[in-house]
Amino acid sequence: DTGVSQDPRHKITKRGQNVTFRCDPISEHNRLYWYRQTLGQGPEFLTYFQNEAQLEKSRLLSDRFSAERPKGSFSTLEIQRTEQGDSAMYLCASSVQGADNSPLHFGNGTRLTVT
Amino acid sequence: AQSVTQPDIHITVSEGASLELRCNYSYGATPYLFWYVQSPGQGLQLLLKYFSGDTLVQGIKGFEAEFKRSQSSFNLRKPSVHWSDAAEYFCAVGPLGAGSYQLTFGKGTKLSVIP
User: What tens digit of pLDDT does each residue of B30-44 get?
Assistant: First the structure.
């Protein structure tokens, strides 16, 4: 169990640029989640995949955000035309299907700074 | 809608002292409750979880939490705090409903430990 891996750890970009983050879940986990955490707040749910299917999206996920998990393994989160309000820590988590009580295992996050 | 309140933004304790972090939740059915810990710049690590059964649950690192349905509380405790426990602690409730795996987090309590 190598844990949930996220890349990059830090990203600084200028307003208006596009950015893409990657998440590699724990290998046997088929559920994958993206959360966003701003300073002084707890994580907020963005979206959820079961295998390659995106089953839920938060209304926080504006049209500029898109997430994919094409082969049911790693996932990418893209933000187009970044805004300063997008500055946050983006956390990925994974869990196992089959039990409602399967806890989320989080990665170390990607910290995005939009200048 | 589900919600989580952590009334204490910041708590300072002396090393060796006991600790209690408060968490109150609002949820329409039997909740799944979690406590996570986050060190600076890191992701979240699961400390413990409650689904059903014994209302006193044991977690890692010597932490425990007690579910009190009548008070809608799930407070985290540790009898003797170590300097390495300094971190931010998040209480979470979920899932929202059948087929939904969102966790709702509180805003967190930052714990400082005085040597």
Answer: 788 999 999 988 889
